[in-house]
Write a structure and sequence with these properties.
With 146 residues, this protein is α/β, with parallel strands linked by helices. Helices cover 39% and strands 16% of the residues. It has a six-stranded parallel sheet. 40% of the residues are buried.
Length: 146
């Protein structure tokens, strides 16, 4: 089971590249949700710990936000620009990626999120948003299994 989980985490970077339609080099990626699960600051085995270094290895600049796990994630994820809100993280991003299904992220105004970004790609690794809702806000939307 652990091997399958690791492979799924590794596949996330490829999913983001495909959603962007090309390489990550020189792109800015907003990663929303660093904790293993919502309502915790626990980052042990969090997908973000695998995903963010892979994005960085592919040349992406990463801006990160989590309501509670930032302090625990900072020491483990060097090179990330740490932000105090989801909208700040998405500022001038080419793609926004939802990694943890925080209620705060579910409640985001997608129009405001899109307006803060340079790009229009939303990769929803937790299926937090309805595809039609994201598309209506102007996003190219990629969810899981949809």
């Amino acid at each position: 089971m652990q091997t399958v989980n690791t492979e799924r985490k590794i596949a996330m970077a490829g999913r983001i590249e495909r959603a962007l339609g090309g390489p990550l080099a020189g792109k800015t990626v907003a990663v929303l949700g660093l904790a293993f699960k919502p309502d915790t600051d626990d980052v042990r085995e969090a997908p973000s710990l695998t995903l963010i270094p892979m994005l960085q290895e592919r040349g992406a600049k990463v801006r990160g936000y989590d309501p509670h796990a930032r302090e625990n994630a900072e020491a483990l994820l060097p090179g990330v620009v740490w932000c105090t809100s989801a909208l700040e993280a998405a500022k001038q991003a080419d793609v926004t990626v939802v990694v943890t299904e925080w209620n705060e992220l579910r409640a985001l105004d997608l129009d405001r999120l899109k307006a803060s970004m340079r790009g229009n790609v939303l990769v929803d690794l937790r299926n937090v948003y309805l595809p039609a809702q994201a598309r209506a806000a102007g996003f190219t939307y990629a969810g899981i299994g949809r």
